[in-house]
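Aim 2 progress update. The chain analyzed this quarter is reproduced below.
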Amino acid sequence: MAADHQGSSACRQACSFQGRLHVVRGQVHVRQGRLQGSGASQAPSTHRPPRSTSLIRNQLVTMKTQEQKDMLQALETRFEKNMHRHIGVAWPAVRAKLEGNLDALRSLREMEGSGGEPDVIGQDKRTGHFIFCDCSPESPTGRRSVCYDGEALESRKEHKPVSSAIEMAAGMGIDLLSEEEYRQLQKLGDFDTKTSSWVRTPSDVRALGGALFCDRRYGKVFVYHNGAQSYYAARGFRGSLRV
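Predicted C-alpha cells:
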C-alpha cells in the first residue's frame, strides 16, 4: 500500500461556524464568528430584525430536541432493517436507554456524522449495556488517513495526518475495536472488503513501534501490522459504544 501523505478529502475536518449570540434590546448579532479548520475568517453578519430572547431560547431548545429525535429515528430505522445483528433485542428497550442520555446521543451523532452507520450488535449480559458499533460496509469515510495514536502523530516530522485513531475515538467518546471485537463484528456481515481499519493494539506491540489493523479479503478476516505512524487513504477505524 502507498501512503497518501496529502490525506483524502473524506477525512478533512469539516469547517464549522462557531458564533456567540449577543442579544441587545431584543436584537440578534453574531460576535466573534470564525471558520475553524481552514483558518479562513468569517465577517460579522449584518444587522438582523429584532427578535425576543425568549423566542431565541425556545428555538435553540427545539433544534436540540429535534436533533435528538432525528438521531433516534435514524437508529431505529437501521435497527429494524438489520435484525440479524441483534437477535433477541427489542428497540423499545434500546430507546429507553438512549432517551435523555445526551452523552450517548452525542457519541452516536459523531459516529453517524463520520460515516460509521452505528447499530446495535448485542447486549452485555453481565451489565445489561447495549453495544453499538460502526456497521458501515467500509471503514468510515470521515475517519480515514489517520495514524494510530498521538505518540505516532507527534513522531512524524513532516506530512502529518490531521489526527490519530485513538485521539479521534476519545474525542467521540467511543472505544476502538479490539481484534476480537472486530472478528465478532465480521460474523454479522462482510465489512472492509475494500478498505481496512485500525484495531486496538496490545501494549507490547505498540511499545515496539507497531500497530494492528484488520480487513476482510477472499472471504476471510485478516490482521496485519504497520508502523503506528503510517496512514492510508483507505484505512480508518471502527468504534463501539456501550449504553
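The two ends are 37 Å apart (CA to CA). DSSP finds seven helices and ten strands in the chain. These observations will guide the mutagenesis experiments scheduled for the next reporting period.
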